[in-house]
Amino acid sequence: MSSGWTVVGDPDGFVVGEEFLLGRAATNLPLLIALSAVRRSGGGAPPLFGWWTGPEGTVGGAFVRPSFGPLLLGDMPVEAAAALPGYLDGAPHAWEGRSDVVEAFASECPGQPVGHRSRLHRLETLQPYSTPDGFARPATSADHDLLDRWYEAVARGHGSPGAVAGRLASGDLHLWETDGSVVAVAGHGPRFGSAVRLDPIYTAYEHRGNGYATALVAAVTDSLLAAGATEVVHVTTPANPAAYQRLGFQPGADYVTYSRST
Fold it and tell me: How far is CA 40 from the centre of its chain?
């Protein structure tokens, strides 16, 4: 078997790459989520998928280019990232992934970073946490309008219409309530393999500093572990004080998005 990239346009032909991503699901959740979305919907630019076979003959990397949004670079050696532009049908408008991988891709497809770097945190062992006043509960349709406002604040006006309704329908949003007021939200994405990503995590500005979101994250994480997840991750900016480290989340790799130079 020769080394290099194998590129396909049909998700059904991406079985080898998908198996690789599932084997490292915690650090490749955006690609798995995008792959699932491509299978559910049509329209947009033709998607593209690929996997890297190293000199030893084993799969060591993968990418997903969904119909919309940036090219998603999964785990891979930097030499695989540098080689990838030569296998594509044109330079992407943007690409994102682990910082060293994105920068290696940019060595052959010039671009510049956009937005903020993010840092992946992985749960090691969930630690006990002193619970503030209040309790965690599932979000319901009655919470839609409040969550819609919060989602816009988190997404800074770039949220997708209907996003909150979809999250409520999937049942993955939970709230912290105290004294009759909802003060924080924590959600999680779909589970792939044994891995789940927490998102969003938000506390109303006037209620920050009381530990509500931390307590809610602890409750949501505990429920995910009880349901069989063994890898729980969340993402912050590197400048974030990472309050959730006290719960047992430890910082890992940094991630970045690049935009093509024009």
Answer: 18
- Phi, psi at 42, each rounded to 5°: -120, -170
> Residue type for 206, please?
E
Other C-beta atoms closer than 10 Å to the C-beta of 246 total 14
Q: Which amino acid is at 51?
A: W
pTM: 0.90
**Over the stretch 37-86, which tens digit does the pLDDT of each residue have?**
998 886 667 899 999 999 999 999 999 999 989 999 999 999 999 999 99
Residue tagged 């330079």 (tokens): 91
> CA torsion sign, 221 to 223 to 226 to 231?
negative
**How high is the pLDDT of residue 234?**
92
Name 38's Cβ contacts closer than 8 Å, sequence gap at least 6: 11, 47, 64, 66, 67
Give me the DSSP letters along 119-155. Answer: EEEEESSPPP----SSEEEE--GGGHHHHHHHHHHHH
Question: Is residue 148 over pLDDT 50?
Answer: yes
For 87, other C-beta atoms within 10 Å of its C-beta total 14
Tell how strand 94-98 and strand 71-73 pair up: parallel
**Core vs surface per residue 112-149: b (16+ CB within 10 A) or e:** eeeeeebbbbbbeebeebebeebebeebeeebeebbee
Query: Residue 33 class from Cβ within 10 Å (0-12 exposed, 13-18 middle, 19+ buried)?
Result: middle
Pseudo-torsion of CA 153, 155, 160, 163, nearest 10°? Answer: -70
Nearest of 170, 192, 186 to residue 64 by alpha carbon: 192
